[in-house]
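thought: fold this chain, then report.
action: predict
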Amino acid sequence: MKSIVKIIVLFVLLLQPFFAGAQILVTGGAPLDADSVKRDFTKQPYFGLYKDNYFIFGPSVGPKATRENTNIKFQISISQRLHKGTLPWGTYLYLFYSQKCFWNVLENSMPMTDLNFNPGIGLTKPFFVKNRYIGKATFLIEHESNGRDSIWSRSWNRVALAANVMVTKNLMVHGKIWIPIVDGEHNRDIVKYCGFWQAGIQVLSDNRRFVGDLVVNKRGGWNLNANITLGLAYRIFKDENQYLYLQYYNGYGEGLLEFNKFHSQLRLGILIRPQLFSDH
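observation:
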């Protein structure tokens, strides 16, 4: 637990300068007005980004770096709106798909050791206060599996509610809770390692060049434990959407195949982000 607290404190200290001059969206600054956001939501069905898309490489932290624990991790995540215009209560229906892979490029034959598939469908509701966009909530049903058979098969399903709130023009807080439905024979105890909820913050600098992200995923049980993902990104070119990205993961459940094994991993690479803030 002490290591988790140290990670969170370090993250806050690193990002403290980003809060200077930040203004509340509903009282001033550079707010997102309701009309412009609604136009984005209600235009023709489109294909876009959902979560962060990245390609990163790096070693284990703690255990000595070896060919087996130094690898590439990459994620592809997209969304597709399924309905033109709004549905009842101002909602929008989406298909989501994310794919995460762990690739041991330093080993012979460069095997992709774990490939996780995560499709879902969700109903999203944006929220506005005084004609200004403040965030959204999504009710979704999702499946995650690694597409393998026998003793290497892993799968589970989640009925989830996710939300994010733009506290200021620089800061977003987000959270997600879920009801797990575990159908994989060889991962019956996955909730012990991946829990029932997660929460986090994302911070943007005023010029949108620097991004910081912290996600805390509480593991099962009443004791103080969590899986931590810490990300720092710098946009390489002012008018492009490619970032130099550093990610640190500490905990269990980074991938499905070894969900019950502890990982502490530091990786560096390239990130492509959705507009504004990312989903998780």
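thought: worth noting. The longest strand covers residues 112-129.
final: tokens above.
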